[in-house]
């Protein structure tokens, strides 16, 4: 097969490309330039997509003996990922930009271009397992549970998954680094990137303040309706947040306050104690089913709402274009804008049934 290997400049994508070459595929490496003004150097594990990353990717491609190109996706990335991220926060929702990037950039923009150029598949360094069952994609968690990325890949369509390759799905991270060292890849011990790539200093509030400016509103006690203080914008908060609320007076019962809900129209940020954070029912829209088979009737499943968050047992049912998820026990910090990913409980809890965008909670 003709395979386009997306090479970020990190150890995972380099080893994934190497394995594609070793499997006998005709591999071409490509680095995606996602910033019009990329930084020159990374700071440890802060951010990615810098000039240094591009050079690291090129050096890895040279060692593998494959052609290498840099494709400019900066404008598309800004529109699809950064602008969407800012807009979601302005609307009082909590997005996951990595899911958006995978969906819109790596497996829409990149895959579309790859297909137009005659490639058969796009190969990435994601930690997830992928197979085809009678032509239908089967997406599973990776062997390395601590690195599993099936959650952020669960928004991909069946057609996108049919043209995807994840060579690292059956490997541990330690094995990947050891293999990189054996192949003399300079990125063998390069730190992983842990932050949002377009916010390399990790200060999301500062980034959003610069984009949205001040949008004053009130901090309101959810039970009494008492105004407890003011804030500069709902975009500076997320459901479940405890620190940095800017409330001077302690709660009457002495317990910590948490953000319970965001109201972008009124500007109110409602706060209360942890007892009010519990959610037992989730509504989610825009469902995606990797196997192209929607749920039929109430379905037992386990659900995850964060990239590396815990799972909870639930019953999910599709009504129209909405997936209603009833949790067996409460989950906290569930916010509109997050994605809920459903896993099959009888397949060792690792088979992805589908995903959807959270629109409401109760």
TrEMBL record:
Pfam families: tRNA_Me_trans, tRNA_Me_trans_C, tRNA_Me_trans_M. Residues 280-358 form the tRNA-specific 2-thiouridylase MnmA-like C-terminal domain. Gene3D superfamilies: Adenine nucleotide alpha hydrolases-like domains, HUPs, Translation factors. ATP binds at residues 6-13, 32, 125. CDD domains: MnmA_TRMU-like (cd01998). The keyword Transferase applies. One of its GO terms (molecular function) is tRNA-uridine 2-sulfurtransferase activity. The keyword RNA-binding applies. Residues 147-149 are annotated as: Interaction with tRNA. Keywords: ATP-binding, Cytoplasm, Disulfide bond, Methyltransferase, Nucleotide-binding, RNA-binding, Transferase, tRNA processing, tRNA-binding. Residues 205-272 form the tRNA-specific 2-thiouridylase MnmA-like central domain. It is found in: Cytoplasm. Its EC number is 2.8.1.13. Belongs to the MnmA/TRMU family. PANTHER family: MITOCHONDRIAL TRNA-SPECIFIC 2-THIOURIDYLASE 1, TRNA 5-METHYLAMINOMETHYL-2-THIOURIDYLATE -METHYLTRANSFERASE. Catalyzes the 2-thiolation of uridine at the wobble position (U34) of tRNA, leading to the formation of s(2)U34. This is tRNA-specific 2-thiouridylase MnmA. It comes from Halopolyspora algeriensis.
């Amino acid at each position: 097969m003709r395979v386009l290997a997306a090479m970020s400049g990190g150890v995972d994508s380099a080893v994934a490309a190497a394995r594609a070459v070793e499997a006998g595929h005709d591999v071409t490496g490509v680095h995606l330039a996602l910033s019009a003004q990329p930084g020159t150097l990374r700071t440890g594990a802060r951010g990615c997509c810098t000039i240094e990353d591009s050079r690291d990717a090129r050096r890895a491609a040279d060692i593998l003996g494959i052609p290498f190109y840099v494709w400019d996706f900066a404008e598309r990335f800004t529109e699809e990922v950064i602008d969407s991220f800012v807009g979601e926060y302005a609307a009082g929702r909590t997005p996951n930009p990595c899911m958006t990037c995978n969906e819109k950039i790596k497996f829409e923009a990149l895959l579309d271009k790859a297909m137009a150029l005659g490639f058969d598949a796009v190969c990435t360094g994601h930690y997830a397992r992928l197979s085809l069952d009678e032509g239908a994609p089967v997406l599973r968690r990776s062997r390395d549970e601590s690195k599993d990325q099936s959650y952020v890949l669960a928004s991909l369509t069946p057609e996108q998954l049919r043209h995807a390759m994840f060579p690292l799905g059956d490997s541990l991270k330690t094995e990947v680094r050891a293999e990189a060292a054996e192949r003399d890849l300079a990125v063998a011990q390069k730190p992983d990137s842990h932050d949002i790539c377009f916010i390399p200093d990790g200060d999301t509030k500062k980034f959003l303040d610069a984009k949205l400016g001040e949008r004053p509103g009130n901090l309101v006690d959810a039970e009494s309706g008492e105004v407890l203080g003011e804030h500069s914008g709902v975009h500076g908060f997320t459901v479940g947040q405890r620190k940095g609320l800017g409330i001077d007076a302690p709660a009457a019962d002495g317990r910590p306050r948490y953000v319970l809900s965001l109201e972008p129209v009124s500007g109110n940020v409602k706060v209360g104690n942890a007892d009010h954070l519990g959610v037992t029912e989730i509504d989610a829209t825009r469902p995606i089913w990797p196997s192209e088979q929607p749920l039929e009737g109430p379905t037992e499943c386990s659900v995850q709402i964060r990239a590396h968050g815990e799972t909870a047992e639930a019953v999910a049912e599709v009504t129209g274009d909405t997936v209603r998820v009833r949790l067996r026990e409460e989950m906290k910090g569930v916010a509109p804008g997050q994605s809920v990913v459903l896993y099959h409980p009888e397949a060792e809890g690792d088979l992805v049934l589908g995903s959807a965008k959270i629109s409401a909670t109760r």
